[in-house]
Amino acid sequence: MKIYHLSTEYIPSIEANAACIGFFDGVHIGHQKLIATCRKIAEEKHIKTCLITFDQDPGNIVSNEDRFQINTLEQREALYEKYGIDILVIICFDRDMMKTSPEDFIKKYLNALNIDTLVCGFDFRFGFKGQGDSGTLSSSSICAFDVEVVPEVTYYGKKVSSTRIKEEIRKGNYRMADRMLGYHYEHE
Fold first, then answer.
1. pTM for this prediction
2. Does residue 184 belong to any structural domain of this protein?
3. Separation of first and last alpha carbons in the chain
4. Nearest Cα to 19, choosing from 148, 181, 133?
5. How many angstroms separate the Cα of 152 from the Cα of each of 4, 123, 140, 161?
6. Any idea which of 61-70, 100-109, 110-119 has the lowest mean pLDDT?
7. Which terminus of the chain is more exposed, N or C, with fewer CB under 10 A?
8. Could you tell me the residue range of the domain that residue 97 belongs to?
Protein backbone atom coordinates (compact mmCIF):
# COMPACT_ATOMS: atom_id res chain seq x y z
CA MET A 1 0.00 0.00 0.00
CA LYS A 2 1.39 3.39 -0.99
CA ILE A 3 0.92 6.11 1.62
CA TYR A 4 0.72 9.81 0.82
CA HIS A 5 0.24 12.80 3.09
CA LEU A 6 -1.90 15.69 1.89
CA SER A 7 -1.78 19.12 3.47
CA THR A 8 -2.72 22.69 2.62
CA GLU A 9 0.82 22.99 1.18
CA TYR A 10 1.13 19.62 -0.59
CA ILE A 11 -1.25 17.58 -2.76
CA PRO A 12 0.18 14.27 -3.97
CA SER A 13 -0.09 13.14 -7.58
CA ILE A 14 -1.60 9.65 -7.64
CA GLU A 15 -2.86 7.11 -10.16
CA ALA A 16 -6.49 6.94 -11.34
CA ASN A 17 -8.54 5.48 -8.52
CA ALA A 18 -11.83 4.67 -6.91
CA ALA A 19 -11.65 6.26 -3.47
CA CYS A 20 -13.57 6.11 -0.23
CA ILE A 21 -13.38 8.89 2.33
CA GLY A 22 -13.86 9.27 6.08
CA PHE A 23 -12.09 9.13 9.43
CA PHE A 24 -12.79 5.39 9.71
CA ASP A 25 -12.30 5.11 13.48
CA GLY A 26 -12.67 1.42 14.19
CA VAL A 27 -12.83 0.44 10.50
CA HIS A 28 -16.14 -1.18 11.50
CA ILE A 29 -18.58 -3.14 9.33
CA GLY A 30 -20.09 0.10 7.97
CA HIS A 31 -16.63 1.30 6.94
CA GLN A 32 -15.88 -2.14 5.51
CA LYS A 33 -18.97 -1.77 3.29
CA LEU A 34 -17.53 1.50 1.91
CA ILE A 35 -14.18 -0.18 1.27
CA ALA A 36 -15.85 -3.19 -0.41
CA THR A 37 -17.87 -0.84 -2.65
CA CYS A 38 -14.69 1.03 -3.54
CA ARG A 39 -12.88 -2.23 -4.35
CA LYS A 40 -15.76 -3.44 -6.55
CA ILE A 41 -15.75 -0.20 -8.55
CA ALA A 42 -11.96 -0.26 -8.89
CA GLU A 43 -12.02 -3.85 -10.12
CA GLU A 44 -14.74 -3.09 -12.68
CA LYS A 45 -12.84 -0.06 -13.99
CA HIS A 46 -9.35 -1.59 -13.69
CA ILE A 47 -8.05 1.22 -11.49
CA LYS A 48 -6.51 1.43 -8.02
CA THR A 49 -8.35 1.57 -4.71
CA CYS A 50 -7.71 4.63 -2.58
CA LEU A 51 -8.76 5.48 0.95
CA ILE A 52 -8.76 9.12 2.04
CA THR A 53 -8.63 9.70 5.78
CA PHE A 54 -7.34 12.13 8.37
CA ASP A 55 -4.26 11.99 10.58
CA GLN A 56 -6.43 12.80 13.58
CA ASP A 57 -10.12 12.99 14.38
CA PRO A 58 -11.33 16.32 12.96
CA GLY A 59 -13.58 16.53 16.03
CA ASN A 60 -10.47 16.85 18.22
CA ILE A 61 -9.43 20.05 16.44
CA VAL A 62 -12.96 21.46 16.30
CA SER A 63 -13.73 20.78 19.97
CA ASN A 64 -10.21 21.14 21.39
CA GLU A 65 -10.61 17.71 23.00
CA ASP A 66 -8.61 14.53 22.77
CA ARG A 67 -11.45 12.07 22.26
CA PHE A 68 -11.07 8.32 22.76
CA GLN A 69 -10.26 6.49 19.52
CA ILE A 70 -10.97 2.83 18.82
CA ASN A 71 -7.77 2.47 16.76
CA THR A 72 -4.51 4.30 16.38
CA LEU A 73 -3.60 5.51 12.89
CA GLU A 74 -1.11 2.62 12.64
CA GLN A 75 -3.82 0.07 13.50
CA ARG A 76 -6.16 1.63 10.95
CA GLU A 77 -3.40 1.49 8.30
CA ALA A 78 -2.95 -2.25 8.90
CA LEU A 79 -6.71 -2.79 8.52
CA TYR A 80 -6.83 -0.73 5.31
CA GLU A 81 -4.11 -2.89 3.82
CA LYS A 82 -5.85 -6.07 5.01
CA TYR A 83 -9.07 -4.96 3.28
CA GLY A 84 -7.32 -4.35 -0.06
CA ILE A 85 -6.53 -0.64 -0.26
CA ASP A 86 -3.77 0.19 -2.77
CA ILE A 87 -3.30 3.90 -1.98
CA LEU A 88 -3.76 5.66 1.34
CA VAL A 89 -4.04 9.44 1.41
CA ILE A 90 -3.75 10.87 4.91
CA ILE A 91 -5.02 14.43 5.21
CA CYS A 92 -3.08 16.47 7.74
CA PHE A 93 -6.05 18.00 9.53
CA ASP A 94 -5.20 21.28 11.21
CA ARG A 95 -6.90 24.64 11.81
CA ASP A 96 -6.20 25.79 8.21
CA MET A 97 -7.72 22.63 6.76
CA MET A 98 -10.64 23.00 9.19
CA LYS A 99 -11.50 26.40 7.68
CA THR A 100 -11.76 25.04 4.11
CA SER A 101 -15.24 25.44 2.62
CA PRO A 102 -16.89 22.34 1.11
CA GLU A 103 -16.52 23.82 -2.39
CA ASP A 104 -12.82 24.56 -1.90
CA PHE A 105 -12.26 21.09 -0.42
CA ILE A 106 -13.73 19.56 -3.57
CA LYS A 107 -11.91 21.89 -5.99
CA LYS A 108 -8.51 22.07 -4.31
CA TYR A 109 -8.12 18.59 -2.83
CA LEU A 110 -10.58 15.97 -4.10
CA ASN A 111 -10.46 17.03 -7.76
CA ALA A 112 -6.65 16.96 -7.62
CA LEU A 113 -6.49 13.31 -6.47
CA ASN A 114 -7.32 11.72 -9.86
CA ILE A 115 -10.50 10.15 -8.45
CA ASP A 116 -12.78 8.37 -10.91
CA THR A 117 -15.47 7.54 -8.32
CA LEU A 118 -15.70 8.70 -4.70
CA VAL A 119 -17.50 6.42 -2.26
CA CYS A 120 -18.84 7.93 0.95
CA GLY A 121 -21.30 7.07 3.66
CA PHE A 122 -24.82 8.52 3.70
CA ASP A 123 -23.86 10.55 6.78
CA PHE A 124 -20.43 11.79 5.58
CA ARG A 125 -19.78 15.47 6.37
CA PHE A 126 -16.88 17.67 5.27
CA GLY A 127 -15.73 21.24 4.94
CA PHE A 128 -15.98 24.14 7.36
CA LYS A 129 -18.31 23.23 10.26
CA GLY A 130 -19.37 20.10 8.38
CA GLN A 131 -21.36 22.19 5.91
CA GLY A 132 -20.80 19.70 3.09
CA ASP A 133 -22.35 16.24 3.04
CA SER A 134 -22.96 13.30 0.73
CA GLY A 135 -25.77 15.29 -0.92
CA THR A 136 -23.37 18.16 -1.61
CA LEU A 137 -21.03 15.74 -3.38
CA SER A 138 -23.82 14.01 -5.32
CA SER A 139 -25.36 17.24 -6.59
CA SER A 140 -22.24 19.36 -7.11
CA SER A 141 -21.34 20.32 -10.65
CA ILE A 142 -17.75 21.02 -9.59
CA CYS A 143 -16.89 17.39 -8.78
CA ALA A 144 -14.53 15.92 -11.38
CA PHE A 145 -15.62 12.41 -10.33
CA ASP A 146 -18.69 10.25 -9.88
CA VAL A 147 -20.12 9.82 -6.37
CA GLU A 148 -21.45 6.61 -4.85
CA VAL A 149 -23.26 6.96 -1.52
CA VAL A 150 -23.42 3.85 0.68
CA PRO A 151 -26.59 3.56 2.78
CA GLU A 152 -26.72 3.01 6.52
CA VAL A 153 -25.43 -0.30 7.89
CA THR A 154 -27.33 -1.51 10.96
CA TYR A 155 -26.87 -4.07 13.69
CA TYR A 156 -29.90 -5.06 15.78
CA GLY A 157 -31.90 -2.32 14.09
CA LYS A 158 -29.53 0.55 14.96
CA LYS A 159 -26.91 2.32 12.89
CA VAL A 160 -23.40 0.94 13.25
CA SER A 161 -21.17 3.85 14.21
CA SER A 162 -17.88 4.50 15.95
CA THR A 163 -19.81 6.32 18.68
CA ARG A 164 -22.03 3.28 19.32
CA ILE A 165 -19.02 0.96 19.38
CA LYS A 166 -17.20 3.25 21.82
CA GLU A 167 -20.25 3.15 24.12
CA GLU A 168 -20.15 -0.67 24.10
CA ILE A 169 -16.41 -0.65 24.80
CA ARG A 170 -16.88 1.76 27.72
CA LYS A 171 -19.55 -0.58 29.14
CA GLY A 172 -17.17 -3.54 28.75
CA ASN A 173 -19.46 -5.16 26.20
CA TYR A 174 -16.61 -6.27 23.95
CA ARG A 175 -18.62 -9.02 22.30
CA MET A 176 -21.13 -6.49 20.92
CA ALA A 177 -18.27 -4.18 19.90
CA ASP A 178 -16.53 -7.08 18.12
CA ARG A 179 -19.66 -7.87 16.11
CA MET A 180 -19.97 -4.29 14.90
CA LEU A 181 -16.23 -4.06 14.23
CA GLY A 182 -16.15 -7.34 12.33
CA TYR A 183 -12.97 -8.33 14.19
CA HIS A 184 -11.74 -8.72 17.77
CA TYR A 185 -11.15 -5.47 19.64
CA GLU A 186 -7.87 -5.53 21.56
CA HIS A 187 -8.52 -4.15 25.03
CA GLU A 188 -6.34 -4.08 28.11
1. 0.93
2. no
3. 29
4. 148
5. 29, 8, 22, 10
6. 61-70
7. C
8. 2-153
